[in-house]
Every structure is written in C-alpha cells, then in structure tokens.
Design goal:
With 92 residues, this protein is mostly helical. Helix content is 76%, strand content 0%. Helix 1 packs across helix 2 and helix 3 packs across helix 5.
C-alpha cells in the first residue's frame, strides 16, 4: 500500500469532519464513522497490492513458457495486471 495506516486514519478523520461540517452526513458516533471510512479506504488502497500478488502467481505458473517464448516479464506483468484490473473493475 502506498500510504501508511496513520495517514489513512488522518484522511478518514478529515473526510468525516468535512462531510459533517458540510451537513452531508449526520452521525452520533464520529469515531465509529471514522473507523468505517478508514477500513473502506484501506480496502480500496490495498486492491492494487492484491492484484499485483495475483499477477505474480499467474506469471510464476507460466514462467517456463515465457522463458521459452522470450516474453519480457515486465511487459507480461503489465498486460496481466491490466486484464485483472478490468476483471475486478478497478481503476489503478
């Protein structure tokens, strides 16, 4: 993940404060709302990490074929990652 958990917590606090100040949400438990927002942010931000891990597993399974055909790992990584992002409807 590209951000620290502390920064994500900060983003969650600022987001909830902004939404409350703008009267876009009301909550009786701001801390609980901040926690839920932080969890959602972490889940979204870690999606790319999960996709990268899945790409590595896929490419490892095809490593021998890639070596024989002369395929470049970086190029194949990018192609497989693009396909997985499309599959998961992720914007990376």
């Amino acid at each position: 993940m590209i951000f620290s958990r502390e920064y994500i917590g900060y983003l969650a606090r600022r987001t909830v404060k902004h939404l409350i100040d703008a009267k876009l949400i009301t909550t009786h438990d701001p801390k609980g709302t901040e926690s839920k927002v932080a969890e959602a942010l972490i889940d979204e931000l870690s999606l790319e990490d999960r996709i990268n891990d899945e790409v590595r597993v896929i490419l490892e399974a095809y490593s021998e074929e890639m070596r024989k055909s002369g395929a470049q790992y970086a190029e194949m990584f990018k192609k497989v990652k693009t396909e997985l992002a499309r599959k998961y409807k992720a914007v990376l």
